[in-house]
Amino acid sequence: MNEEPRFRTGDITGLHGALTSMVAVESEADAIERVRALEELKAAAAAAQARAAATLHSLRYDAEAERGVPAEKRCRGLGAEVGLARRESPARGSRFLNLSRTLIDDMPCALAGLESGAVSEEKAHTLHRETSWLPADKRRHVDGLMAGRMAHLGVRQLAAEARAHAQRLDQAAAVEHVERCEKERRVSVRPAPGGMAYLTALLPLRQAVAVYANLHKTAAALVGTGEAGERTAGQVAADLLVERVTGQETADAVPVEVHLVMTDSTLLADGDVPGWVTGHGPVPAGAARRMLADPDGSVFLRRLYTAPGSGGLVGMDSRRREFSGVLRRMIVVRDDTCRTPFCDAPIRHIDHARPHRGGGATDFRNASGLCAACNYVKENPGWRHEADPDRLAVTTPTGARYELPTPPLIGGAHRQPRTAPPCRGAPPPHDDPLSSDQGGPLPDGVTGNARAPVVRLIRPRPPGAGPGAGHRRGSAQEKWFRAYLNARCAG
Fold it and tell me: b/e per residue, 297-316, with b = 16+ CB within 10 A?
């Protein structure tokens, strides 16, 4: 008779407590041994988590089959549910769910390596990615070929060897895989430290190598002839990329629209609260003021009403009453990125938290900015979103509930947490230096109070337009701010 396992789900909490109360290391050798042992424990925990996720998929599939759900619709949204449980984005949750099912069904050697601690979760993901397009039998073959190598190779070497085995075993499928991947070429941008951003282009290999080689060849020539000034070859290559893509004479003259949110004290005084670029994060106060003083962009100001203390966005100059125009922009500025807990994807959809078909109002209180994937997931049976301007609560089909407070408009600018309902009070009077001709009723159900941060839009000028070209609304205001900020930045 098999002995019943003695370690159950509830015991994991005790293990967690034991780890947090470990005695301090006594020597360097003890410290490095603890690091190694904990790394192996992480891998074993990932294997146990993979088994649980694969079992969850089987249970959900069978339950939905009994309810008569069509096969192609079963387990929809389960990856997002796994992502919430792992406190990560729905995309990462789906990736882990796919890995879990593959480990159990087709990669026993990789699973054994995880359980022993010899193979990390990252390496398991790498092996899965390089073989995901193979038939199951050939994926198992590659898993066996790599069994004795996974523990000794770096991630990049592991990927290259697994890819070589996969392409050798099924050349026809490899060619189809390459053609399919070429259709997924795209360009993306994501924030980076220091007020920077990563611009990533996923291109066919030959095109990517050609672009990279051309940029660096030209940059090296400019450095060699002294035309680069004090710039390095890498800096010149980056500037060349911007100039060639945008058609500008210099990389600094960027003709794009940027939403920059800042407090009145940061704009008009020497405040140190950072500005906030919607979807990308904070910008140092001084750098934000220099951006506003940039002569290559026009400035357009719009008042945003925030709740006192917490800094939550509660109102905006607008005459619109639907999820479009200014109301849509207001929700995007408030939520910044996808509102689902742990999802950092860009906002693509503005939708009702309580569905419109269920009586949900089309107003600021019932609106959420979501990525496309999260918006589609919440429409599946068993999912429920409950929202107000202060928070979003997500309930999954298993009954798990995840609640996330809405962040303040400018992160780090307010010490008081979001606790009080924000939709109360009245808008501030229109007698401050930021007043414009855009007053009028706020969106349906939206009121506000407290001082007003400012959104700045750098709007593109037509080619060949002179310094006076740009957005006509608020042009006198722009001249005043331009002179004011130039004087401050010069001082």
Answer: bbbbbbbbbbbeebbbbbbb
- Condensed to tens digits (0 to 9), the pLDDT of residues 57-82 reads 999 999 999 999 999 999 999 999 99
Burial 371-382 (b: 16+ CB within 10 A, else e): bebbbbbbebee
* DSSP H or E stretch at residue 80: helix 78-85
Please determine, for residue 284, whether its predicted confidence score (pLDDT) is greater than 60.
yes
Q: Which residues contact 128 (CB under 8 A, 6 or more apart)?
A: 98, 99, 102, 103, 107, 110
CA dihedral 34, 36, 38, 42 (to 10 degrees): 180
What is the pLDDT of the chain when averaged over all its residues?
Answer: 78
> Which residue would you say has higher pLDDT here, 469 or 167?
167
Residue whose C-alpha is closest to residue 47's, from 135, 136, 110: 110
Cβ atoms within 10 Å, residue 45: 16
Q: What are phi and psi of 202, to 5 degrees?
A: -95, 110
**C-alpha closest to that of 452 among 339, 311, 274:** 311
What pTM did the predictor assign?
0.69
Neighbours of 153 (CB within 10 A): 16
| pLDDT single digits (tens) 124-161 | 999 999 999 999 999 999 999 999 999 999 999 999 99
pLDDT greater at residue 442 or residue 213: 213
**How many helices (H) does the chain have, and how many strands (E)?**
16, 13
Q: Which two tokens stand for residue 94?
A: 């789906």
| β strands within 341-485, DSSP E | 349-352, 367-370, 384-388, 391-395, 401-405, 454-457
d(CA 374, CA 317) in angstroms, rounded, equals 29
Give dist(CA 87, CA 92) in Å, integer. 10
Coil, helix or strand at residue 87: coil
Q: Which residues pair with 405 in a beta bridge?
A: 391
- Per the DSSP assignment, residues forming a β-bridge with 394 are 385, 402
Q: What are the φ/ψ torsions at residue 289 (nearest 5 degrees)?
A: -65, -35
Higher pLDDT, 488 or 177: 177
Q: Residue 187 — φ and ψ, nearest 5°?
A: -125, 135
- Write the pLDDT tens digit of every residue in 351-395: 888 887 777 877 788 888 999 899 999 989 999 999 888 889 999
Cα–Cα dist 93/70, whole Å: 23
Question: What is the Cα 201 distance to its own chain's centre?
Answer: 17
Q: How is 180-247 classified by DSSP, letter by letter? A: HHHTT-EEEEEEETTTEEEEEEE--HHHHHHHHHHHHHHHHHHHHHTTTTT--HHHHHHHHHHHHHH-
Q: What tokens does 256 get?
A: 């794009």
Q: Which residues contact 433 (CB under 8 A, 6 or more apart)?
A: 268
Digit-coded pLDDT (tens) for 322-357: 466 667 877 888 888 899 999 888 888 888 888 877
